[in-house]
Design a protein that fits this description.
Blueprint: E1 21-27, E2 30-36, H1 42-49, E3 68-71, E4 74-77, E5 90-92, H2 94-97, H3 105-112, H4 122-137, H5 157-163, H6 174-185
Parallel strand pairs: 1-5
Antiparallel strand pairs: 1-2, 3-4, 3-5
Helix pairs in contact: 3-6
């Protein structure tokens, strides 16, 4: 590129566009073939291309957790990753965790414990909680884990709060969210 911002053919860098990418995403157990701009976030692919509106766009900067989904069992902010990066991965959104007729235990616990108010953050909270429990089960310590060498992690309220700190609830339903997660962690009793 020369000083004027043009390349050797005379077109400006701003004028160039990305060619669409054809990808196949495995979302909630179903292969979904999409044609997307390679710069499309996974969040936008889910919401705008696949019409899965359960995953919410909150801050679009990875700070609120409303867009949390599970990828290969791990929780991730879908606004911070590109859709093209997840071909071949198992992606689970809130729609894939359960159904109205057969709720996932975490969904049922959120209902039972009134772990939501406006509901906007709830899908991300639930996906994050499911991923968080898997992390604790695998023995991954958090910042507040007392014995980081131990594979057995006690999910105290403090531990749950720390592990869920990436998910913001503007309605402040935090005590009920913690109660729902604790209930599932203790065997589903809420």
């Amino acid at each position: 590129m020369g000083e004027s911002g043009t390349d050797t053919q005379g077109s400006s860098a701003v004028e160039r566009t990305s060619q669409p990418s054809t990808i196949t995403l495995n979302v909630n157990g179903h292969a979904q073939r999409l044609e997307v701009d390679p710069r499309t976030s996974l969040l936008d692919a889910l919401r705008e291309h696949l019409r899965l509106s359960g995953t919410k766009k909150g801050c679009d900067h990875g700070q609120c957790g409303a867009c949390t989904v599970l990828i290969n069992g791990l929780r991730i902010n879908s606004c911070l990753t590109l859709a093209v990066m997840h071909e071949g991965d198992e992606i689970v959104t809130i729609e894939g965790l359960g159904s109205p007729e057969a709720l996932h235990p975490m969904q049922a616990a959120f209902v039972e414990c009134d772990g939501f108010q406006c509901g906007y953050c709830t899908p991300g909270q639930i996906c994050s909680a499911v991923g968080m429990l898997a992390e604790a089960e695998a023995g991954w310590p958090s910042h507040v884990t007392a014995g980081v060498a131990s594979r057995q992690i006690a999910l105290t309220d403090e531990e749950i709060r720390e592990r869920m700190s990436g998910n913001i609830c503007r309605c402040a339903a935090y005590p009920n969210i913690v109660a729902a997660i604790r209930g599932v962690a203790e065997g589903g009793a809420v």
